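Bit of a strange request maybe. I'm writing a small parser for structure token strings and I need a real example to test against, not something I typed by hand. Could someone generate the tokens for this chain?
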Amino acid sequence: ILIHTTTSDVYFQPSTDGKVSVVCRESKKVYHNVTVEAGTLVIDEVDTRSDIEKLKTNLSLFTRTIIVYLPLGEYEALDIELDTGNVDISDGYKFASVDIETDTGNVDFGSDAAVLEINTDTGIIKVNDITAESIKLDTDIGDVTMEDITADRITVDTDTGDISILYSTVSDTL
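Reply from user aminoacidic:
Good idea to test on real output. This should exercise your parser:
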């Protein structure tokens, strides 16, 4: 699963009908192309605004949203790249690898991942109730909270913010 967008909140929710669907709250000139390429769900932003329109729209309070309804189960890779936006991945999924990067936004992650990497320049990172081989969390400005984690290796870095790890088991390196 690949999601690349500039300004959107991204939510993953369990599908109730066993099918994958994507619901986007967007505008006429900033929308998302949702395709499947070689078995990979790809969500890319298309922005047809002029530079003046971009300035005016970026000053508005309109929040674009992407909701991915996905059957619970195992998936290969999840790659989310945002400039501004929050990411919320509910529990019940298992990914081989996860890479989430946002310049400004909070990330709340609650699914298993063999390899989990989350990076935000400004934002809070919360990881709850997961099992992983390797976890790497990095924020320049923001708190990192981990609870009920089982992992082989955990690396956490924040330049300005608190780090909290509760009720967790690390078998190799913290």
